[in-house]
């Protein structure tokens, strides 16, 4: 085998763990993995992909969750002539028992190529490469071990959240639970395409945004607090004595100048009304500074990649909302957003693009939210005002 | 028939005991050393996390290997991070070093915490996607082989996040990364006039083009479309809706590099990554031009940025003109925005550096 | 026949002797007191400037009055500033106080220097323009009567520049002023179907509308146009090209207030003024709502801004949400941009104040 | 008269000099000024303007310089039935001898309403209100005393510059001379409309930009320097001793952190490569800090008010250019810009709008300027790149 794939083989070298080694491991048991290796080698030679536009494939009752994929040289690589992938929804926070993981491995060893992505960049478990005839039995087996498909196509995509309260001291919301709850509530929206395009939900427990929600989610939930952050002055002094330059590295980097270091009293002073909860002082001194206690979330809308009208970072929609189960307000809001988008959106128009086309004002009216200055960095400069 | 709409397993069943007990009660953390976190709870409980790099594209046997470790040291639990790293967690300090040793035996690096270069968010590439203008896994492997020491150490001004997308659909948070590698086509689609009318709806195809480059074929006999090449910026959107308009081209395809994006709200608000190198060729299997460009930039950043300054924060402070000067990267027409909100990027002040 | 294209008089003939001698040699200056500058040359020469306010709309007798003063104290020279103020210059320190006294006798305030409110850049209004949605001179008079003390003193955090334009054509640097008062229409044009075809070119009229609100009249018999009222934002551009589309309306017309613009590159780059009050009624002759709103804002600014902080710099530091909170001005749909680059104004961070 | 115009009369009160008083002064000799007062009163009552769209009026040989204006109630106010204004070009820097000013007064007393604006907001002397039949004789008289018309319509508008080297220590260019030179060179462009729309040139001697060029000029010239600013440490110390908080108010406000105050040595230290020449430290301590000596200008393009596509601040086009008479490079550049704009511009399209429509790249190629990073705040974020 080695001689046939010299370029791929080259990628077994070097200290970083090698995906080629992984393909070869799978290839020992799976002809499709073996063919995949050769396809990849061929791409390295030809400098183009050898996959064709995927047809519509899937499993009974679902409109998505499987990405169809065919080789453009099926004669040459018959075992990957059809090589579809499953998107399998993950447990919130990507926590697993080894038992569950082994069950997935067994199913995928049986029906697929034995290759996976842990995880896809949306957050699904990606089971990489199954022939068409194995799709349904494989799904049945997955369902049997308690797994279900994630989203693909014009549906709600697999919601994800950061590790949150499970292992992070800063989480102002229960990211894992809200993600799980919304996922369960909106199973139908996840599995049956009926919208203009995809819709993504992500939740981060604090403004550090460890799931990059603000950049990647149409509906972005970010934990925050409404009161003042908590400062333990003894612990601050400990950091200072430990050699941290509090003046320069904490106070000096606060974006709003909300902090002051009283060198004499060796105290960190805060003007709470100037704190914009950027997390920096907390990040620098986790033992000394903590988020406040009046927890909730900021809701932002419209994050997305460049296609079609350009990329967006999510825009502030609700500066603060309490986030407690059963999350009724959030669910109602999502339904309102989807209704409006569904009614007015064009094919392949993300919700942000629709808002851009029809105007934020129209959107706010449709979902019943009052304008507040927190929604904008600055008011309009142009005088083209409608009355 | 299988049950549908059961959703994923309940995360609560996946949590280790110590986490169940201290859920929402964590008080603070420390980075004990690269790749090792220590979280302390208000209850006094302690949790150690060992973070290991993963190639993401892994065999089921790889998963079984890490499960073996988790069974041995972590009571049968583990998790993955939002950047594909593997996290082994244990309340027992004494298990940390042996655990690290076993992870090492698997050939996995321990690191990815603090002021490091963590794992590279990436996509399918030539492994699975029909849109790919470059590969993903191979480029990432080539990059991380070279930057390996930065994964296992914490000596940069701040954490540096690299992402890669194999086409400008930009699966992943590539548009907001410290450094982003993006596969790009640089030739217009070659229309397959023979099959187009069978495979595609012509109006949808025409409507798909953001620049209006696609028109109905002038010859009424030919049920197809034409591309005005001067209006095409190779976005591939037409190909997404119409397979008869492939863009892939061995000579034209390559990668672009973007820099200075971030996602967190820490200090500066989130920002987009911005174009720094419009085009580098695909040079499999190790993309040397890409790797050396990234290394160069990281070197300059490491030398000039202040402590805790993310790539984009540093560039904002010293100005893009300084960035281009220090990195020796040529500034070209391509760098100047000409899309919808282009004017918002033009400089409207006499404040700049020479 | 008169000579054409002779151009304006050569400025060299207009300069006082001391300036000719020290042209390009000035070394530094001081503000001796409000309205009095002292410039010192590398040659050792000194020049005092006394700055006086002017209503700009003046009779020839007014000009003769100030010429009298210039003849008496300034060897027959004077100048005007870029904001309509009059500057009397003399190298002789002893002439300064008598000069100020004579200026006072004319009823002109001395000031407009340093941390003051200087003269209001403004436009024609109902005195001469067909486009005006409000008056100019009267509003300015009403404002400056109330803010008079700020012209003659220097007690603000930084200089504050107010501008006024009587319609959104914005003659003047109104779009980049600390405070800008702008005449606005709020009703769509009333099309004069009878005269339109005689006065205007229909295609030009249709093309003039930035929002595409103007269409050919549906009744082919009527050679005129129709306005889709929901698309009209009353910019008056159609009226500029077609007199048969007047917008002026006693009830609809009024003024908007913008804040936070600046032009200088000092500290922060130049910035646009931004909408703070979408509409206040025309209430001649003294526009009390406008005057009191400006006073309120200036009071809040004076109280909260740091030394040397221009209005816009202060707002940038404390955030617009703080500005609206402190000034008690309601934030409405109108404040949210919906023109071409609107999205660039939306907040894409969780950083904000409550 | 007083009783007829109660609202206007109200505006005679108060400390600020009154324009109504000025109208009344003129009204003593000029019936048109008297009628103007009544027109204004009527506008205060009706809350609308009483001026009609101006027809095309002018003087022989010129396509602009006069703004035509007619009353919409000519029967009621016959002396302002036609009430046109002259835009008269000013001497650079708005310097005058009283002799010249008195000559203008005499001309305008004879042919016009006796009312003026010193100055219009572009910078012209505005002679406010002449009947149609007086236009030509008035112009002849103005020409006779050495004055010429300024711009109106689709021409080069009256260029203006700040007081510059005449009275300001910071001027890095001879604003008065460059403005005068360009004005004389382009008399034809000033007087005979042939472009798509108006074009404005303004020059400020330093980045303080006292003629607001960056906001109001299509072609913006701003003086700057390429070497390091000059610091007189003794003078700095004097300011410090005089009570200026150098650390907080000078160093602390430098936008790039280029300054440092060495409290011990009582010295102001500069990192020259970090200075972006914002003028702040110079403004605060004119005796101690001065611009460098390698003088020149930054050229920016495209400043304008909102009509039609929105307002623009000028964009950096040439970071640094030497600016010496006869200003050949500037003139050549202007001609290239006008040629390109003239060829491609639509009616009422300012040069900035044309650049926006056809792209900065196209413009740069047309005028032969190479892209440099100083032109942008940041490179593009979107991947929609043409090759
Ligand atoms: C495990 C993970 C969350 C998860 O649910 O999987 C996580 C976990 C932690 N993050 Fe994160 N972050 C994780 C992805 C992210 C991301 C998203 C990403 O990288 O794609 C971001 C936003 C990235 C960006 O801005 O571009 C992120 C921005 C932060 C920040 C803000 C950093 C900054 O200064 O901009 C902090 C604070 C810090 O590091 O001081 C932080 C801090 C932390 C802490 C210290 C929180 C805590 O108290 O436990 C955790 C360990 C940090 C460490 O690794 O040094 N985390 N963190 C993710 C690990 C990814 C990995 O394997 O490398
Ligand atoms: C598998 C995955 C990449 C990966 O290797 O991780 C992926 C793969 C594809 N993405 Fe993606 N996207 C994946 C996460 C993303 C993300 C990241 C995220 O969700 O956080 C983004 C950016 C966020 C966003 O949605 O804006 C993303 C933005 C796109 C886009 C551009 C959408 C846009 O509005 O800008 C497309 C184009 C499209 O939808 O036609 C796209 C389209 C595709 C398609 C379906 C190709 C296509 O044109 O039809 C790719 C299938 C590849 C294949 O053959 O397997 N993918 N895609 C990720 C999903 C795995 C998972 O479920 O966990
Ligand atoms: C006379 C005049 C130039 C002219 O050719 O007519 C002028 C003259 C001076 N300006 Fe100016 N500026 C003049 C209009 C401007 C303008 C334009 C405007 O107001 O429309 C600006 C830009 C305004 C803006 O940013 O919105 C302007 C921004 C400055 C600045 C920067 C202020 C800042 O911090 O942003 C300075 C420096 C300072 O004041 O410390 C300055 C400083 C000066 C100095 C001190 C320069 C000098 O050394 O002689 C002059 C006296 C200042 C004073 O009045 O306190 N001049 N100056 C203009 C007087 C207008 C008036 O009557 O009020
Ligand atoms: C007289 C003057 C206002 C004043 O009272 O000072 C003035 C008066 C008029 N301007 Fe202006 N503009 C005057 C300086 C300006 C300026 C300021 C400047 O030049 O620095 C601007 C903003 C800068 C710019 O050009 O962008 C300005 C931007 C406009 C515009 C909008 C142009 C745009 O591209 O956005 C219009 C509309 C138009 O051209 O159709 C306009 C149109 C007009 C017209 C001709 C009305 C019209 O729609 O035809 C006004 C004639 C009034 C009258 O009856 O006398 N005027 N106009 C100023 C000229 C006096 C002078 O020559 O010194
Ligand atoms: S987003 Fe905040 S709460 Fe969530 S893991 Fe990151 S730091 Fe913790
Ligand atoms: S959280 Fe950020 S904004 Fe708030 S005080 Fe700390 S550093 Fe400043
Ligand atoms: S980035 Fe493009 S090529 Fe890569 S997986 Fe996503 S859609 Fe496919
Ligand atoms: S690649 Fe993009 S720009 Fe080119 S024709 Fe297709 S859709 Fe249009
Ligand atoms: S701002 Fe408008 S109304 Fe006022 S003078 Fe200019 S064009 Fe006329
Ligand atoms: S006022 Fe402006 S928006 Fe309204 S119809 Fe006229 S041109 Fe169009
Ligand atoms: S722009 Fe500069 S040079 Fe000109 S007057 Fe103002 S401060 Fe002086
Ligand atoms: S001119 Fe401005 S940028 Fe330069 S050192 Fe002085 S304050 Fe800093």
Order of helices and strands of chain A: HHHEEEEEHEEHEHHEHEEHHEEHEEEHHH
- Rg of chain A, Å, rounded: 25 Å
- Rg of chain B, Cα atoms, Å: 24 Å
Write down the secondary-structure element order of chain B: HEEEEHEEHHEEHHEEHEEHHH
Low-confidence stretches of chain A: none
Distance between the termini of chain A: 72 Å
Hetero compounds:
siroheme, iron/sulfur cluster
Q: What's the overall geometry of chain B?
A: globular
Estimate what percentage of residues of chain B fall within beta strands.
Answer: 15-25%
Shape of chain A: globular
Give the biggest sheet of chain A.
Answer: 5 strands, mixed
Total count of strands of chain A? 16
Binned, the helix content of chain A reads 25-40%
Largest interface: A-B, 130 and 114 residues
How would you describe this structure to a colleague?
The complex is a heterotetramer, with 2 copies of chain A (387 residues) and 2 copies of chain B (354 residues). Chain A is of the alpha+beta class and 387 residues long. Chain A has 14 helices and 16 strands. The longest helix of chain A has 17 residues, at 328-344. The radius of gyration of chain A is 25 Å and the shape is globular. With 354 residues, chain B is an alpha+beta fold. Chain B has 10 helices and 12 strands. Chain B is globular, with a radius of gyration of 24 Å. Classes of the chains: A alpha+beta (387), B alpha+beta (354). Chains in contact: A-B, A-C, A-D, B-C, B-D, C-D. At the B-D interface, strand 12 and helix 10 of B face strand 16 and helix 14 of D. Strand 5 (95-97) of chain A pairs antiparallel with strand 5 (77-80) of chain B, so a sheet runs across the interface.
């Amino acid at each position: 085998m080695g001689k046939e794939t010299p370029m791929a083989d080259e990628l077994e070298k070097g200290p970083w763990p090698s995906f080629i080694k992984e393909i070869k491991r799978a290839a020992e048991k799976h002809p499709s993995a073996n063919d995949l290796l050769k396809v990849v080698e061929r791409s390295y030679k030809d400098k183009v992909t050898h996959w064709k536009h995927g047809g519509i494939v899937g499993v009974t009752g679902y409109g998505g969750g499987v990405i169809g994929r065919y080789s453009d040289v099926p004669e040459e690589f018959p075992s990957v002539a059809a090589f579809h992938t499953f998107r399998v929804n993950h447990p919130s926070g990507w926590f697993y028992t080894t038992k569950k993981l082994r069950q997935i491995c067994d199913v995928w060893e049986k029906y697929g190529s034995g290759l996976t992505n842990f995880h896809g960049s949306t957050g699904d478990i990606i089971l990489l490469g199954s022939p068409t005839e194995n799709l349904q039995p494989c799904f049945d087996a997955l369902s049997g071990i308690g797994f279900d498909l994630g989203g693909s196509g014009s549906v709600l995509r697999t919601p994800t959240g950061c590790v949150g309260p499970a292992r992070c001291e800063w989480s102002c919301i229960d990211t894992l639970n809200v993600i799980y709850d919304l996922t369960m509530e909106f199973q139908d929206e996840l599995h049956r395409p009926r919208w203009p395009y995809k819709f993504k939900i992500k939740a981060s427990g604090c403004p550090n945004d460890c799931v990059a929600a603000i950049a990647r989610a149409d509906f972005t939930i970010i934990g925050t607090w409404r009161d003042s952050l908590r400062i333990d002055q003894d612990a601050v002094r400990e950091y200072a004595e430990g050699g941290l330059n509090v003046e320069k590295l904490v106070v000096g980097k606060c974006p709003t100048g909300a902090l002051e270091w009283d060198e004499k009293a060796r105290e960190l002073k805060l003007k709470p009304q100037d704190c914009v909860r950027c997390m920096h002082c907390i990040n620098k001194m986790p033992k000394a500074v903590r988020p406040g206690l009046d927890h909730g979330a900021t809701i932002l809308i419209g994050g997305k990649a460049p296609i079609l009208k350009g990329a967006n970072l999510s825009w502030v929609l609700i500066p603060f909302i309490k986030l407690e189960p059963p999350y009724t307000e959030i669910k109602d809001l999502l339904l309102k957003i989807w209704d409006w988008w569904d009614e007015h959106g064009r094919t392949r128009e993300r919700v942000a693009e629709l808002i851009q086309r029809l105007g934020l004002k129209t959107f706010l009216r449709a979902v019943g939210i009052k304008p507040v200055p927190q929604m904008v960095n600055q008011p309009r400069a142009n005088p083209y005002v409608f009355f | 028939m299988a049950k549908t709409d059961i959703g994923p397993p309940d995360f609560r069943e996946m949590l280790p005991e110590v986490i169940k007990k201290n859920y929402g009660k964590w008080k603070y953390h420390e980075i004990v050393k690269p790749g090792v976190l220590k979280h302390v709870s208000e209850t006094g409980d302690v949790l150690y996390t060992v973070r290991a790099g993963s190639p993401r594209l892994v065999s089921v046997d790889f998963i079984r290997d890490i499960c073996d470790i988790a069974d041995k040291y972590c009571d049968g639990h583990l998790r993955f991070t939002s950047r594909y790293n593997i996290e082994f967690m244990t309340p027992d300090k004494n298990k940390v070093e042996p655990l690290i040793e076993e992870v090492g035996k698997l050939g996995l690096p321990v690191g990815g915490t603090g002021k490091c270069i963590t794992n590279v968010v990436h996509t399918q590439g030539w492994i699975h996607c029909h849109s790919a203008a470059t590969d993903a896994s191979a480029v990432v492997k080539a990059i991380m082989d070279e930057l390996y020491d930065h994964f296992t150490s914490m000596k940069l001004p701040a954490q540096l996040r690299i992402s890669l997308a194999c086409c400008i659909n930009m699966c992943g948070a590539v548009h907001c990364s410290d450094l982003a590698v993006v596969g790009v086509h640089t030739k217009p689609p070659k229309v397959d006039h023979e099959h187009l009318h069978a495979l595609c709806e012509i109006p949808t195809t025409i409507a798909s083009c953001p620049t209006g480059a696609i028109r109905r074929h002038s010859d009424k006999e030919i049920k197809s479309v034409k591309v005005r090449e001067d209006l095409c910026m190779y976005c591939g959107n037409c190909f997404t809706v119409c397979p008869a308009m492939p863009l892939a081209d061995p000579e034209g395809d390559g990668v672009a590099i973007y820099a200075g994006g971030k996602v967190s709200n820490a200090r500066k608000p989130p920002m987009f990554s911005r174009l720094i190198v419009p085009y580098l060729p695909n040079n499999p299997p190790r993309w040397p031009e890409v790797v050396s460009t990234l290394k160069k930039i990281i070197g300059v950043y490491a030398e000039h940025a202040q402590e805790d300054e993310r790539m984009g924060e540093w560039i904002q402070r010293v100005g893009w003109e300084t960035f281009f000067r220090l990195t020796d990267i040529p500034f070209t027409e391509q760098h100047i925005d000409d899309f919808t909100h282009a004017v918002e990027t033009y400089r409207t002040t006499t404040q700049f550096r020479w």
